[in-house]
Amino acid sequence: MIHCSGLEGAAPAAGAAVPDGPGRTWAVLASLLPEAGWMALGWQAAGLATCAGASDGEAWARLQQVLDGGPVPDGVLGAAWDEGEARLAALAGCPDTLEPARRQAWCAAARTLLEAELHERRLQARVQELEQSRRLQQALYEIADLAGGEVEMQEVLARLHGIIGTLMYAPSCYIVEYDERRGSLRFLYYADDRDPQLADGGREWPVQEMADSLTLALLRHGRALRGPSAGIRRALGLPQRSRRHGSDSLDWLGVPLRRGERVCGAIVVQSYDRAGCYSEEDRALLGFVAQHVQTMLDRRQAQVELERRVLERTLELERANRELQEEVLERQRAERLQHALYRIAEMAVSSQGPEQYYAKVHAAVDDLLYARNFYIALLAEDQQTIEFVYSVDQGGDHRPPRRTGKGLTEYVMRTGTTLLAHRADIDRLIAAGEVHDPGPVRASSWLGVPLRRDGEVVGVIAVQSYDPKISFSSDDERLLSFVAHNIGTGLARQAAQERLRLAHADLERRVAERTSELERANEQLLAQIGERLRAEQRLTHQALHDALTGLPNRACLLDSLGAALRRAGDGAGHAFAVLFLDLDRFKVVNDSIGHAAGDELLVEVARRLVSAMRPGDVVARLGGDEFAVLAACPDGHDEVRELARRLLGVIGQPLWVAGRELFPSASMGIALWHPRYRSGEELLRDADAAMYRAKNEGRDRYAMFDEAMREQAVRSLDLEADLRRAIQRREFIPYYQPIVRLEDGAVVGHEALLRWRHEKRGLLSPAAFIALGEESGLIEQVDWLLYEQVIEELARGGSGYISVNVSPRHFRSPGFARRLLGLLDGAGADPARLRLEITEVALMDDAPRIRRMLDSLRARGVGALLDDFGTGFSALSYLHRFPILGLKIDRSFVAGLDAEGGREESLALVRAILALSHSLGMETVGEGIETEAQRATLLELGCSAGQGYLLGRPSACRVR
User: Fold this and answer.
1) Beta pairing, strands 747-758 & 801-805
2) pTM above 0.70, yes or no
3) Cα distance between residue 669 and residue 577, in whole Å
4) pLDDT digits (tens, 9 = 90+) for 18-72
5) How far apart are CA 241 and CA 233, in angstroms?
6) How many Å apart are CA 505 and CA 285, to the nearest integer?
7) What are the phi and psi torsion angles at 94 (to 5°)?
8) Residues 6 or more apart whose Cβ sits within 8 Å of residue 810
């Protein structure tokens, strides 16, 4: 508590506080009391120091008690009251004889005077606060000015020290920068009135050297520190200060500088002569200033860094500018050189003669370098003389030819390299004996470049200077080398032009002669071209048309179908149909009256088809006896049916061919356009399928392709896929039907019948798949699977033979007999127990080849049976020419032996077949015997053997 006594003229009693209080108020109130009295007055107020005064120690104790909230003691004159946050009291000791009026007057005066004194003190405190704020604001303004000024950093920091000195006592101040990552600190500013040389501002101090210093403790502590340095050390647990860290101060204040949350430095002020001179207010003030100082330092450092970067960038730009200027100069030189080279190249063509060319070359070189003295020297044809074909020199332009010697020109020719020689270089060459002394007139600088033609040195181009002030450089050497290269080319071009001029006259003569020859050849060539064009047209027509009938062929028809499909699909055309025709029994015509007659028939049918069609319809021959018609049918099915009937009628009219009257007919399939069709091949495929249905239904008719046919085609496709898989899985097996002797019923052999063990449909007979197998060609692979199993069965032993059916396809393969015999040999089976059942159709394909094949098999014991005899084109010559072992009477004849109405015909046919076989010594087997009457009749007619359900059904095992 602050003790003040403001009673002027009153001597304090023993132990009383030193009077330093409200002096005027004390004097006035003291004058109102008897001199023998004591007095104590004062206040306690928030924001102000306690102000109090007392005449002695006892009075002071009474006043302190009242200011702390106690009542005024009894018998004491005075009062205590509150004004806002302040507590005021005035006490006095006086005799009891003092009038009440004077007592009240004294208390009122004490109240008024103390309140006035308190108000004055408050105003003074406010004035001090404002003054402090003004000084702080002024300091911040000055700091901001320093941050943006052009003053050096040390001067800025010195001024900053002065600014801090206006705010507090700061004779010694330093600012330190801290780098925690590098573990070092540096004193940016250091001013100390006790240790002025302690810190080197340019040195970076490792933290190890500052380990026990208050500065490092402040940086690591991260909060402001205030007080005597020794006390701070004790509080932080630091050892006693060493002299290398400076002297101890009586008062020390340091605040950290922060960049965000990181401590990056500190500001420290200290006093060696005053104790307790830094208050908490000074700490807050210095901390506030530190924030602005850090901002200023960052700005100054950023400005310094910016200036450094600007300086670096300026230097880079200056360097780049110099390089750019050099590049521009180099490019200008290159442009001049390129222009000169273009001129030289153009001169070689445009110059009227060598002299003009050399002069223009000189002018071009003079644009590039100093060429007051210039000459071109060429080696003569004898290789021993130098001719100066062009020379300009200030000592005289005429240079006569000379024999090769040891001049600078000859040196360049001899070495084949460019020579740039100044006076000293020439002297060294003379001293070395490379060149001779030219005499008193000697160039101060000489530059010569060899001229080359096809890699050989043929001359020299040279410039020289007699003025010591003018000398040639390496740039001139490079330029003249470029020029020399093009001059060499130009000289070669000049020589070539001369040769060209010499050859031109001869060429004109030869051209005239050749022109007349070419005119004659051209006439012949035009005739050949015309013939070739006509031939190409014929070839194009032949490629798209049938040679026999002249009708469009399959390729041409497919093009027309593609166009029709596109028009119909786009809605730009009408619906259309494709009619596929195949002549019935055309092969009979070819085989009976010859192929020429067949061709005549085809031509007539083509003519009739074309005559029956409308313009715009297409009639095409696909090959053989197949034709196709592309016809528009906007009215749909009825119109197509009518067209089909009309075409069949036209084709069916009789005609005479090769002296015979023929009645042709055709089977026709029709496919109508549908959006599902994507190509002409699909339409032809479906029309072809419908045509085969028409043939199967009796021929000379038409059939429309419908969904049933499509489904049948899909089923056929699926069946073919199943057939291929079955071949891979070996699902085909033989079923053996016994062949018995009709006389006693003994089994003499078996026929191996093909069966397919289908994974889904069960056991299938050949009728379900044999036609597809023949059509797809897969029947050969199926047959070989059957042959392998039959031959394995033969190899197991037993009696009797086994016959197998052989498709005509096998006889078209030249290796059939060899492969079959190989199977027999490989299995060790007896060939004599194997018989082949062939049809009459198989014998008609290639009779000589089939006979050779059957003879080779017969030689090994394999016999052949003619199956279904009497149903085909039976020719007795086949029985005589081929090694046939026996005949098998077709089941259709056997079935008629007990049928009503047809028995006599069947008897006659069977009797004739048996008579024929007996006369030729052949065996006979009756097929399809299902009744006892059939068996008895065959036995009576002389048939030796038979097979059928009556005699035995097919089974997986033979009857042994």
Assistant:
1) parallel
2) no
3) 10
4) 334 456 788 888 888 877 578 899 998 887 777 888 888 888 888 898 888 889 8
5) 8
6) 111
7) -145, 160
8) 780, 783, 816
